[in-house]
């Protein structure tokens, strides 16, 4: 397929895919298409699974991946309209009933004192996107900032097993959360948040997105598998998509990951959904091993952004 044929194929997908194709690949932010996400396809299906008590699944975090937490993250990544009343109601309910002693989000008894920095990052991402007032998110921001490690990143195991080195999983979740909080114009501890964003981005770049800074070896082979939804898990496409969203310029330390991504492209110009994270699902968006509109869209917009920033010339 040539580029136009790939675009046409993407536009045959779910309305949430259509909206992001128009916005990110065709530079048209069509709000009429975005408004349809709540009433068609995946967005409608996810919203229909909400219980009368305001939760999805069995509560805030159980079971994966049909809990309130991961459903809200899915809805944010579909780009459901940010003012959706039902979603905002659930986020408010979580803030009222699920705060831990450290100001973060409590998942259960084991996190009632020290919350989970990964979940706090993801919560900050979708709560900010759905226009939660800054004041209600300040304790979560404080909780995450308190977890910043000397190497610039984050690791949810610091409060469990005393981890001394940051995790790419935790760091990308925090980055997405802090970036969305900042993007919404919130000024609470702005300088500290921006410094945390900068140091977390540098942590990922120091590792060339998937390589050990000490040995140069692949940290984990799963970082090279393109999965979607990502849930809490890190991979190179999630990182490149973040750098695209944050409008970061090309950096030579991205090149190894870009080469891997390009080598995974099918002959027809699409990318496959390589693996699915096991767990309960509301429904299957895309089948593993098949061409993926999600991964193709995300890869194309990341590469488009890097080309705009003279990536092709750098090569």
Structure report:
Helix content is 47%, strand content 1%. It has 14 helices and 2 strands; from the N terminus they run H-H-H-H-H-H-H-H-H-H-H-H-E-E-H-H. The model is unreliable at 308-315 (pLDDT under 50).
Topology overview:
Elements: H1 3-10, H2 15-24, H3 31-35, H4 41-48, H5 68-78, H6 85-97, H7 117-129, H8 138-145, H9 168-183, H10 190-206, H11 236-245, H12 255-263, E1 271-272, E2 291-292, H13 293-308, H14 311-314
Antiparallel strand pairs: 1-2
3D shape: globular
Helix content: 40-55%
Question: Kindly, what is the distance between the CA atoms of the first and last residues, rounded to a whole number of angstroms?
Answer: 24 Å
The DSSP helix count reads 14
Helix/strand/pairing class, anyone?
mainly alpha
Share of β-strand residues: under 5%
Overall mean confidence score, pLDDT: 95
Strand elements, count:
2
Strand arrangement within the widest β-sheet reads 1-2
Order of helices and strands: HHHHHHHHHHHHEEHH
Major sheet, described briefly? 2 strands, antiparallel
Keywords for this entry:
single chain; 315 residues; mainly alpha; 14 helices; 2 strands; 47% helix; globular; disordered C terminus
